[in-house]
Amino acid sequence: MSRTIRAVAGVAVLLLIAGCAGSTPSISADQSPTPGSDSTIQVAGTGSADAEPNQAVVRVSVVAAGSDAATARQRLAANTSRMRTALADAGVGDDRVSTVRYDIYQDRRRPPEEGAEPRIEYRASHTFELTVTDPDRVGSVVDTAVGNGASEVDDVTFTLSTERRRALERQARSAAMADARSKARALATDANLTVTGVDVIQTTAGGAPRSADEGASMTETPVATGAPPSDIESGPVTVRTSVRVVYEAAPEGNETA
């Protein structure tokens, strides 16, 4: 699968000059530093890395109703058992299925006639997250769940495995550092300085990986004999990160680190 790395324009940069007397006066990039002074250049860099998703998380709910809580629970348990058996047969084992929410509640319906007592029905629901290790099989997994007891498909998210995400994070950090280094050298040149080393590096988490199209495109077809399968697609997933780096600098002529 193809991967690209993009260095994204960073935020504003700041040039700080620390005087020998212990003060930290600030100069602009077009001013010449005092010979022999110790200087620092603080910049922010950002970077990103892309890859095709190698797993997906599908959230489905099994819902059942009954005239009392016990009946609703029993029907829910039967539908849940049927769905999980079908998923296991389709390759989605118990280690790939986790509970998100379980609920039994009263559902008071408006009576059909004015002044009549409200009709009370009990509803039970069990929401699961299914981890699918092959994104191309998401549509088939959705159809299997819906055809065997699932009442709702709440969400489909294409994402990355832990190993793939860590690899992209390393690439994104490298891109962010390259972005910061380029900015620091440009500022140093404008201020008649030479970058001589690194003083501080801080990283900022880029958040969870995000699909380029902000989610999956899903066309769901009712499950019936002879019906076409659900078609679910997603584009590349992007990991972004940023760094803040303080570089050491000296008047031009000193050796660059």
UniProtKB/TrEMBL annotation:
Pfam families: SIMPL. Residues 25-45 have a biased composition (Polar residues). It comes from the Archaea. InterPro entries: 26kDa_periplasmic_antigen, SIMPL/DUF541. Residues 25-52, 205-239 are annotated as: Disordered. PANTHER family: SLR1258 PROTEIN (PTHR34387:SF2). This is SIMPL domain-containing protein. It comes from Haloplanus litoreus.
